[in-house]
């Protein structure tokens, strides 16, 4: 009966599974003590097996090809498990204690070098840092560029031609993001016809926008960040073919205005991050982010009278551009203007267009001809 119980106990012990969890407080001494304890137990079991079967001819301890030197299968398997566990534990501990890798310093050096470093949780430090850097860079661009972006209100007497708008032709599906009011005007008094966006490109108060934003206006009012009341603006020059215009406001306090730098759209690549700032549907200073989808896009605008207006070399972006964004800047991740937002497809999503900086540079020379400015 006792022999039967002992066999059951031995079977149960063999079926037991021990689970070990890594504890950062474990050190070499505790692992070594555990290792020695398991080895002593295995040695005792080996001695017992040798004593039990060493004198008999059929004893397992004397079968050379089966189990040399009297080791039982259990003792060999136990020794193997102990060795594997200890070696694995030592490897994990050395990694956690940074005995060979240098830990955080290795991660910092690897990230600084632009390579990927994975910690024990599998998080790639370099990738996380890169993502954070992109978000931070975009936020910085908005903070720096936003004070130079203005809202333009167009007051005038609405006519049929102005109601249609430059991009108002229904045949081609293209529309201008101006956000015009379609209210009828029975009186001859100027009323708000629409709103658009512009930006200072010169600290003396010169603003670049679309020609269709200021078209047919009898009065222009510009809302500038930092000023409680809108400022009156006058038209310096305009080019309907290019859909560009320059207007100017005077500083009430004599201070210079913040100005944006016009960059080089030729250096922009498909897939580059781009940022649009404007006043869509009257929601002032709205930022949208996307990528540069294509370059050198030509589009044709079909007017209500049957005429067509063709635009070439436009930048295409999936950054959201809506009515009211017209004339606003399309910025790269350095905060440079690479385009002026000008048209969207009313029947599509994520398809907007901007006049490239390569066209703007040449146009400004003509638009500012005869005008005395500090710098361009």
UniProtKB/TrEMBL annotation:
Q: Which InterPro entries match?
A: Chloro_Bact_Ser_Proteases (IPR051201), Peptidase_S1_PA (IPR009003), Peptidase_S1C (IPR001940)
- Report the domain of life of the source organism: Bacteria
Spell out the Pfam families in the cross-references.
Answer: Trypsin_2
Keyword terms of this UniProt record: Hydrolase, Protease, Serine protease
Keyword Aminoacyl-tRNA synthetase among record annotations: no
Give the compositionally biased regions (Polar residues): 178-188
Q: Which stretches of sequence are listed as region Disordered?
A: 45-70, 171-191
Q: What is this protein called?
A: Trypsin-like peptidase domain-containing protein
Q: Which organism is it from?
A: Cohnella hashimotonis
């Amino acid at each position: 009966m006792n022999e039967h119980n002992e066999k059951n106990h031995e079977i149960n012990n063999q079926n037991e599974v021990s689970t070990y969890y890594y504890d950062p407080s474990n050190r070499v001494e505790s692992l070594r003590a555990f290792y020695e304890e398991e080895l002593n137990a295995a040695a005792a079991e080996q001695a017992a097996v040798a004593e039990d079967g060493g004198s008999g001819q059929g004893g397992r301890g004397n079968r050379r090809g089966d189990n040399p030197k009297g080791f039982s299968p259990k003792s060999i398997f136990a020794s193997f498990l102990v060795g594997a566990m200890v070696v694995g534990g030592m490897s994990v501990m050395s990694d956690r204690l940074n005995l060979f890798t240098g830990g955080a310093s290795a991660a910092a050096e690897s990230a600084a070098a632009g390579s990927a470093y994975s910690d024990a949780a599998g998080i790639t430090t370099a990738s996380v840092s890169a993502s954070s850097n992109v978000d931070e860079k975009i936020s910085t661009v908005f903070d720096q560029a936003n004070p130079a972006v203005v809202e333009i209100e167009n007051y005038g007497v609405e006519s049929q031609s102005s109601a249609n708008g430059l991009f108002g032709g229904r045949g081609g599906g293209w529309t201008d993001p101006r956000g015009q009011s379609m209210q009828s005007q029975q009186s001859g008094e100027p009323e708000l016809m629409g709103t658009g966006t512009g930006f200072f490109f010169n600290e003396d108060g010169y603003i670049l926008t679309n020609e269709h934003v200021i078209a047919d206006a009898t009065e222009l009012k510009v809302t500038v960040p930092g000023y409680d009341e809108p400022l009156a603006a006058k038209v310096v020059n305009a080019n309907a073919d290019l859909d560009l215009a320059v207007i100017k406001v005077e500083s009430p306090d004599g201070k210079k205005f913040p100005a944006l730098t016009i960059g080089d759209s030729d250096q922009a690549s498909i897939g580059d991050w781009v940022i649009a700032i404007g006043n869509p549907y009257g929601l002032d200073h709205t930022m949208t982010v996307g990528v540069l989808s294509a370059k050198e896009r030509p589009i044709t605008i079909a007017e209500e009278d049957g005429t067509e207006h063709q635009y070439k070399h436009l930048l295409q972006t999936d950054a959201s551009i809506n009515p009211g964004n017209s004339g606003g800047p399309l910025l790269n991740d350095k905060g440079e203007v690479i385009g002026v937002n000008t048209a969207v497809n009313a029947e599509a999503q994520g398809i907007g267009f901007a006049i490239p900086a390569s066209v703007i540079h040449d146009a400004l020379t003509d638009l500012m001809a005869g005008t005395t400015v500090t710098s361009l």
